[in-house]
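hi! just following up on the protien thing from before. the input was this:
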Amino acid sequence: MVLYFYPKDMTSGCTIEAHNFQRDLAKYDAKNAVILGVSVQDEKTHQEFCAKESLTFKLLADTNKQVSGQYGSIMNLGVAKLSARHTFLIDPQGVVRKVWLDVDVQKHSGEVLVAIDGLNKTNS
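and the predicted 3d structure came back as:
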C-alpha cells in the first residue's frame, strides 16, 4: 500500500502529485499496490477534488488529524495545521518498508514504483 499525505486539495503541488499517481494507477494495480491519499480536509472537499481532477483512487479525510499525527505528517503553518507531504510504502503485513519525507511531486510516483519493484525483488 502507498499511503501518501498531502497538504491541501486543489493546490498546484497536490494536484500534480495526485495526477501522477492517477496516471500510473494501472502500474500500481499490476503490482497489487493500493494508493491512499490523506489530508486533514473533509470528505466533501475530497469528493470535489476527485470529481474536478478525475481521480479514482481513495482520498481519506483526517479532519481530527489523528492519523496524520500518528505518522508524524502534520505541519504547522501559523494557526493552520495541514498534512505534510510524506509517503509511506507499507507491505501486506502492515510493515512500513520505505518512507519519503521530502517529495518532488513531479517525480514521486515513479520513485514509489521503483521502490515497489525493489521490494518485490527482495521478497522473490
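Residues 108-122 form the longest helix (15 residues).
The chain has a mean pLDDT of 93.
cheers
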